[in-house]
Amino acid sequence: MQHIPPTVRKGPKKHLLSRCDFYIYVCLCVLCLCGIAHTQSASNALRFDGEDAYVLLGKESSLNLTGPLTLEAWIRPTGWGEASQSGFGRILDKSVFLLFLNKTGSDYPEESVVFFMQHENGTGSGSGSPPHTIQLGTWQHIAVSYDGNGTVRLYINGVARSLSQPIGMPAGPIADNSWADLFLGESSGMNRAFEGDIGEVRIWNTVRTPAQILAHFKAGINGDESGLAGYWPMNATDPETLRDRSGNGNDGTIFRATWTDGPDFNADTDGDGVPDTEDECPSDPDKSEPGDCGCGVPDTDTDGDGVSDCLDADGDGVPDTEDECPSDPDKSEPGDCGCGIPDTDTDGDSIPDCLDPSAPPDRPRLAWPTDGLIRLSLTPELRTRDFSDPDATDRHAQTHWQISRASDFSSLIFDRTSDLRLTRLTVPRLILEEGQAYYWRVRFSDSQGDESGWAAPSVFITQTTGSDTDSDGVPDAQETGTDTDLDGNGVADSGQADMLAVKTLTGQAAIRASVAVSSLAALMAVDPADIGDTENRPDQFPLGLIGFRLETDYPGALVQVLAYFSEPLSDQTGWYRYDRLSGWQDESVYARLNGRGTLVLNITDGGTGDADGVENGIIVQIAGPDEIVPPAPAPSADSGSDGGGGGCFINTASARQFIHQ
């Protein structure tokens, strides 16, 4: 609703106001204007198309909220958002704290508003309003506060609502977000657009009390209140800029959102005498609250039993008075398996799973990282919810883990099955690359060998660390100098296109592409002490470990790599590889000594020696030698020795046999 300034009509000169009258008139006008400004806080709004409209509010320090905060916004959604089933339309998004809508298909209540936080301790939490508290096409004021310790409060139209917290409980400060831009009407990943109108927005670095929320959700504020971090009253129609009136300079840049009318606080659509902003049933003239049956349905109790005719506890559309399974939303009759258990026949043998001794496990559900999480570690821990199976005696035997860059998993970068890592898996080093989107999913197998269906996939985006500024595949801190020439050809290893070189714990190492290798993508030194798994680990790794990722044009091929070390290797040297699913593996039979400081490594893409477990043209390995030639003892003055015997290479049969070509 546009504010229209008062009109001053001019009359004949003899009717001019006296100076005193004029001052009184001006004062009254000012008071009038001020009164309007402070009782009607939003006259305009921005309309978002649910596709590519948003406002970028920046990342000034005043918006880096990690402790107490309060978020407020007027919204009139016309859809639930860009995600196909759940919507997840963003009201506000600063990567580590989000305010968004949820329709259905997620762990949150249906047709709710959700506040999600990523905490400083690495955990995540989500708090949702009760089911069906968000209505399309209606102006509603949303407010949420967090005290920075563990208490979230959520308000709709100034009234506190109960919370559902299915993802995790709030715990401590919010993670630092100084690096992240604040978005209005869109996610930082540009894939969760809001559809509808957003009016006045306020952000505070304090917890607003319930009384303050109720008193001011329709009333305006001055913009100079204590704790105000950002204030966008939507009282201008600049097509490019949304002005911050808090004095903190958080002006927003408007991208494709358009100006429209904001909430009318006096509107009463259904004519029941209750303004829409206070009416929970704004289109039902007979109700201002949903009651038992919801808006639009009378709470009639024909049989006088104290239960409304419409009451349907499980929401399956069948009233409880006619429902033989009143607590089962999928059944109104017991069927073969009884209430609460679906009559599913997964293997198609006409015997329901509940009566079939070999029923497969239930479909898994992913727990962490939550869908759309960004700036995730390059070695994140993936977590699922607990295993369940219709057969009470079946146990969780295996989990099949998959990671892909494609949402349909048509090409995989990780494909491993584990009988140890059943509900938690830390992704091995070098599998994931920086700043990339990855999809992941799992399926369970039970002790009868039956497999579940695949879990609904989740997507995350990895962080950008900046540890390899020259993008040569070697961390900057581990770069070797121009004097490192481990292959002895007179050219620095770091300057050769088919080699990568790195500083190890006590020297240097390099790898060279040999047979069927098209490129060397990455090389890094790894400290064995950083790997807590000690089962089958050798007593020592005098040079530490190296990790590398290479590519081949022949998926599934046997490739050959030369590994050079600055110290001579003993003929007793073993080659030990580690990955989180297989643990420590002695792969000496796939290595061959080729000179005192060189090993020839034979690795099969997707097979022996490849940590990703899939024939995809990418090979990842973390391994190292466990013995070097000890330094030669200094000759004694009367030994008669020429000093060359103590460090000589012994060409005798090795206790470990290396393969030969």
From TrEMBL:
Q: InterPro entries from the entry?
A: Choice_anch_U_dom, ConA-like_dom_sf, Ig-like_fold, LamG-like, TSP_type-3_rpt
The domain of life is Bacteria
User: What does the UniProt keyword field contain?
Assistant: Disulfide bond, Membrane, Signal, Transmembrane, Transmembrane helix
Which Gene Ontology MF annotations are present?
Answer: calcium ion binding
Composition-biased stretches (Acidic residues)? 267-283, 300-327
Instruction: Report domain LamG-like jellyroll fold positions.
Output: 67-211
SMART domains, per this entry?
Answer: LamGL
Q: Which residues cross the membrane?
A: 20-38
What is an example of a Pfam family matching this protein?
Answer: Laminin_G_3
Question: Which segments carry the region annotation Disordered?
Answer: 239-350, 464-491
NCBIfam families in the record: choice_anch_U
Q: What is this protein called?
A: LamG-like jellyroll fold domain-containing protein
